[in-house]
Amino acid sequence: MPLRLLLADEKGTVFEHPTLLAAVRSGEEVLDAREASGRPLALPEYAKLAFLPGRLPVGIDPGSGEPVLVQEIELAGRKLRPSAVGALLPPGYTRTYLPAEIPPEGAPPLPQWAYTAAAWSPKGPVAFALHTDSRTHWDPARYSTPDLKERVAARRKASPDNRVLKQIETCALLYRCTTSQNTFYERDEAAIPASVACNAFCVGCISEQPEDGPPASHDRQEKAPSAEEMAEVAIHHLERATGRAMVSWGQGCEGEPLTRARAIEQAIRLTREKTSRGSLNINTNASRTAELGRLIDAGLDAVRVSLNSADPELYRAYYNPVGYDFSDVEHSIALAREKGAYLALNLLLFPGVTDREGEAEKLCELVSRYQVDQVQTRSLCIDPRQYLEVAHEVGAGGQAIGVANLLSALREARPGLVIGNFARALDERQNAAGKRPPLAR
Questions:
Q1: Distance separating alpha carbons of residues 253 and 224, to the nearest angstrom
Q2: Is the separation of the CB atoms in 197 and 256 below 8 Å?
Q3: For the segment 325-351, what is each residue's pLDDT rounded down to a tens digit?
Q4: Do the beta carbons of residue 30 and residue 66 sit within 8 Å?
Q5: CA torsion 42→47→53→59, rounded to 10°?
Q6: Which run of H or of E encompasses 20?
Q7: Angle, alpha carbons 134-41-384 (nearest 5°)
Q8: Does the structural domain 140-435 have CATH classification 3.20.20.70?
Q9: Which regions in the chain score pLDDT beneath 70?
Q10: Contact 312, 329 (CB under 8 A)
Q11: For site-directed labelling of 2, which of 12, 186, 362, 369 has its Cα 20 to 30 A away?
């Protein structure tokens, strides 16, 4: 039986359309789900179906094969104006298609989530996605546990004035940020937000949006923490953490950490004076090459560079950089490679744009040229229409080759490339940074 279209009423109750088949979107193109590359997955555990308020669903007429915009439908004896439905995926999955939907004129922007195409199969709901990282240490069942509030309260009581802990308390309890929660669980990768400022105005920024944009998903810190406060959190975590011990500067609830490079450099040195354990990582736009070099010299061993494209035009259209350009990002990538840091790309992936032929070619060239260690696929959290406006006739063009084919091309371009969704710990890495002897205590 073919996949059926899903839609929702005004309360968010999800229904299967009685006759229309499912459609999916790849960039600006609506496709019959039967023509989509790759088979959809049964809705993963911890995934959710979500309705897209103010977005009309598009299905496929089973007779003609033509797309149909559903503006009204009668369900259970009542007429209603339906909303499109998508899936929200747990960590470890990468979407391959977007929900097929059309916004009526004047529709407000959607909340910032990574909306994924979904449909109804004879065995239940399915999502168009790939399982790109099977590691279980980020299993959602390990987060937001009943003892979390107690853990947060105890850690805050021990360091009541620490501004890092004050910020990530909110992130852990309100936003359910897993990296922030790790800080209180004392395991794996922990968050150290450092900056209140940024030198880019990303269209999909989740911590700062213009008045006419969607509500920001996170609130930034009011005042940046000191080097001592950051070091306190880092030392405490690295000395106690189980699993893949790591601390990371550069979180979704802050600006660009390299704008506070001097304070982070001092925090790194203070940390390494006390412990040689674990990894020190930064998530960054890589805009300031000299500052990044100083951090690596101080002891930073892993760099995760966020980008949406290896094409300067599309990069600028999304990031709106201030005081730097894509050439600076490339210089920073080259420097991180030269200095032996573990080099990852945080690829903000958007089906139908990131996997265009030209975009794929440029990404493959970048990954090959700088011998990137890992590509972490990150489904871009944004109203799809916002990003389609950004990317319309911008960047490297060509037909979409499909997300799975993009990932295969990246692996061919860089033998040994790790593709996944989670950071790799020191003992999981293959380059020099993962094999460095421990620093003296």
A1: 12
A2: yes
A3: 999 999 999 999 999 999 999 999 999
A4: no
A5: -10
A6: strand 14-26
A7: 95
A8: yes
A9: 1, 206-221, 252, 431-441
A10: no
A11: 12
